[in-house]
Amino acid sequence: MIVDRFTYAYQYMDDTKTLIFRYDNTTHHKKLNLSNYPHHKHEGSQENIVTSSAPTLADVLQEVAPLIALP
Q1: How far apart are CA 66 and CA 35, in angstroms?
Q2: For 7, phi and psi rounded to 5 degrees?
Q3: Is 59 exposed, middle or buried, given 0-12, 13-18 or 19+ CB atoms closer than 10 A?
Q4: Model's pTM, two decimal places?
Q5: How far apart are CA 11 and CA 24, in angstroms?
């Protein structure tokens, strides 16, 4: 099955609600001339924006897995 995503946002925050990362494709960063616009990633803060692909949920979960400390 093929799923069409028109907009997406995947956000990961720590237990203090500090942003670790967020992927999204909102069009608010056009002036940054990102090579894969509108896809981008916020790394560690709202202001630290880098180009990215359009990750799947599985991709994001693989990125989060090593960051989660399990007891």
Answers
A1: 28
A2: -135, 155
A3: middle
A4: 0.83
A5: 8
Look at residue 10 in the predicted model and tell me its pLDDT: 96
- Distance CA(57)–CA(9), nearest Å, equals 10
Question: pLDDT tens digits, residue range 25-51?
Answer: 998 877 888 899 999 999 998 889 999
What's the sign of the alpha-carbon dihedral 34, 23, 63, 5? negative
- For the chain, domain boundaries: 9-67
What residue type is 56 in one-letter code? T
Q: Is the pLDDT of residue 71 over 70?
A: no
HEC assignment per residue over 11-38: EEECCCCCEEEEEECCCCCHHHCCCCCC
